[in-house]
Target: TCF25 factor
Amino acid sequence: VQLLLQMNPYHVDSLLQLSDVCRMQEDQEMARDLIERALYSLECAFHPVFSLTSGACRLDYRRPENRAFFLALFKHLMFLEKRGCPRTALEFCKLILSLDPENDPLCVLLLIDFLSLRAREYTFLTRLFQEWESHRNLSQLPNFAFSVPLAYFFLSQQEERPELERSQARERAARLIQLALIMFPSVLMPLLDHCSVQPDARVASHPFFGLNAQISQSPALNQLTSLYVGRTHSLWKDPAVMAWLEPHTHEVLRMVEAGDALVQEAEHKRKIRYQSAPRNIYRHIILSEMKEATAALPLEVTSQPVMGFDPLPPLDSIVSYTRPERTSHPSNESTLSLFFRSLLPNFNLQGDIRHDGDDEAGAAQDLNQGVNRLMAAMRDMLANIQFQEPPRDDNPEGDGDWD
Model:
C-alpha cells in the first residue's frame, strides 16, 4: 500500500486502508491526515452541479465508485467526535444521511442521536424523531427509544424555556422512557453497570430486568443494545439523569407486575422482530469498532475478510465496468526455440513457416529456413561473446625497498 501511495499519492482506497493501519499503530495524527487527503482527492472530482449544501444530491452506495466518499466521511466524523468536535461531526453525519436517506448504507441513524446529545442539539433530535417516526419506525431502534426521552429531559432542565414547554418536555420524557424500558428491558442493567451505579434490591432481583432479559433476546437485538450502551453510557452518568430514571424504572416494574397490555405487546414484538440484522447495521458496527457490539457479530460476518476501503460490500452491487481479462496464446515452439528466444528476444524460429501440409517441397524449404535462422542466431551469439583477459602485472617482483 505504501508503494502504491508513493506512485499515486491520492489513490483513495489505499489512503483509507493505510489510515486504518496507522490508527491501529496509535498514529492518530497520520491516520487523520490520510483521511483528509482522501476527502480532498474526492472533492477535486466533484461535478460542478454537485452541491453538498443543497441536501438534494444522492449517491448510490451499490456502485463501488461512490463507496469511498461515504467511508471517508464516516471515518472523518469519527475522528472529529474523538477530538471533541461533536457539532461538526453531527453535520457530517447529516451529510452522509442526506446522500442516501432511504437506504442509509452506513446506518448513521444509529449514531446521529449520540452526536445530537453530545452537541446539545436536543431540539433537532426530537424533531427528527417526530418527522421520521411515522415512516421509519425509529422507536423500534434502542438508541432512539432511549435517547429521545433523554433529550426531552435535558430540554425540561433548560430554565430559559417557558414553563409550559418545560412541563410538556417532562411529560414526554416520562412517557417515552417508560416505553423504552418496556420495549428494551435488557438495556437497563448493562447501562447501570457501565455507569458504575448499583441498582436497588427490587430492580436487581426482578427477572424483567435481570439476566434472563439479555439471554432471551435475539442476537440482532443484542447487537443493537450493546452498541447503544457501549457508545452512550457516558451521557447517563449525570446524577440528575439517574435520579430521573429511578422512579420510572419502578413504575415499569409496577406495570409488569400488574400484567399491563403494553408489556405483553412489547414482548410479542421482540419475538417477531429483530430476527436478523440487515447488512448496513453489520457495516456500521464494523466501522464503529465498539467492542461490546463487535463481540456479538455473527460468524458469517466475522469469518470473512473485511477490507477497510470496502467493508461488507452490498450483495446487489452495480458494476459499471469490468477489467479485461488477459489472454495467453499457447505456443507450440520447441524447448530449444524458447531457450534461444530467452537469449535473443528477436529470434523467431517459426516466423515465416507456412501452414501448408500438402506441399512437401514448401515444408522442406521452411524447415531449411528455420535451421538456417537457428544457425545464424547461434553464430551471432558466439560472435558477441568476448573473453576478458586477466590483468597482467608488469612488475611482479614489486619495487619495494629491501632491508
In short: Residues 352-357, 398-403 have pLDDT under 50 and may be disordered. Residues 335-382 form one domain. Residues 391 and 398 are 15 Å apart (CA to CA).
